[in-house]
Amino acid sequence: MMSFKILTLNNISVRGLDRLPRDRYEIASEIGHPDAIMLRSADMHGMEIPASVLAVARAGAGTNNIPVAKLGARGIPVFNAPGANANAVKELVLAALFLSSRNICQAWGYVRGLQGDDEALEAAVERGKKQFSGHELPGRTLGVVGLGAIGVEVANAALGLRMQVLGHDPQITVQRAWQLSAGVEQARSLDELFARSDFVTVHVPQNDATRGLVNHARIALMRPGGVILNFARAAVVDEAAVLDGLDGGQLSAYVCDFPTRRIKDHPKVVALPHLGASTGEAEDNCAVMAADTLRDFLEHGNVRNSVNFPESVLPRIGENRIAISNANVPNMVGQISTCLAAAGLNIADLLNKSRGEIAYTLIDTDALIPPEVLESIRAIPGVLAARLV
Description:
Elements (H helix, E strand, L loop, with lengths): L3 E5 L5 H4 L7 E4 L7 E4 L15 E4 L9 H6 L4 E2 L6 H17 L1 H9 L5 H11 L12 E5 L3 H12 L3 E5 L5 H6 L5 E2 L3 H7 L2 E4 L13 H6 L4 E5 L8 H10 L2 E6 L12 E3 L8 H21 L20 E7 L4 H11 L4 E9 L2 E8 L5 H8 L4 E6 L1
Parallel strand pairs: 1-2, 1-3, 3-4, 4-5, 6-7, 6-9, 7-8, 9-10, 10-11, 11-12
Antiparallel strand pairs: 13-15, 13-16, 14-15
């Protein structure tokens, strides 16, 4: 029975680590020749990643702290935990709706700054409360950009608050579409969503396409007094555009999870210290999902929840399996099959999937694959990695 070494770069929830049996897994923050790496927020971009590493698993959703392309070029899948922290982020977004619509943080700050006895406080409260007057949520329109695990939960919950909800996501999956309430209306474009919304919340990954998605032009489309909520990534929102919107009155509030020097003290900004997934439950859920995904890959070669490899799940036939990652070019499966046939090995089952420039193949054979056959497969031009599972 194979055993594996796991290097952890952050403290990982015990509930997650308990999914990796100690009789088969050695787990430590310092370990030589690890088979896999588990992490949360540690920055891997400047890290020398050992040649022994077969996979990287993040106990969270975003993977900006991981050199995904570099690992993919080495045939190493990167796993994340999509949806495991969705409820935690959803709850914070709902809180942000209330914080911004009722000016709660500003009102709290006002009260904390009051001086005097109870009689003086009561008089000051009655004098000052009008400046914090807000509005209720029913009938207001929330635009949800990105309908992944978090966006769907936010959209459905906002309907429960009797808000009108618009959603926009050209790449929504069938799974998420089934989860989305029929009461959520589709916006045909981002511009339409901004133009029709009182509140806009963004739930998209940070990449070249989403950088500055919330910008001057789109804020100008919003109804006067609009609110922007950002619990995705800082760069998705153009800070300068938001500040101009706040100062000019087009926006009444900006609530985000990414404080910077130029926004943190603005009177219409509520900036939180990246609390989106900061609950014990979310950390447990993310760690459990990451550990389960990692174990299935190491022990069976199956790929689920990868950000750079295709979804590849093949029920096992027997004990003889080889997992191969390669460049997505023609005739790779043919060359691999030829190597197996030359060694007298019969293929019992085979799965081949591709995603972008990477292809992944799982093959079950009717007999043990000798080391020299494995080496001949590794020597095929375009093969990035191959191992017996």
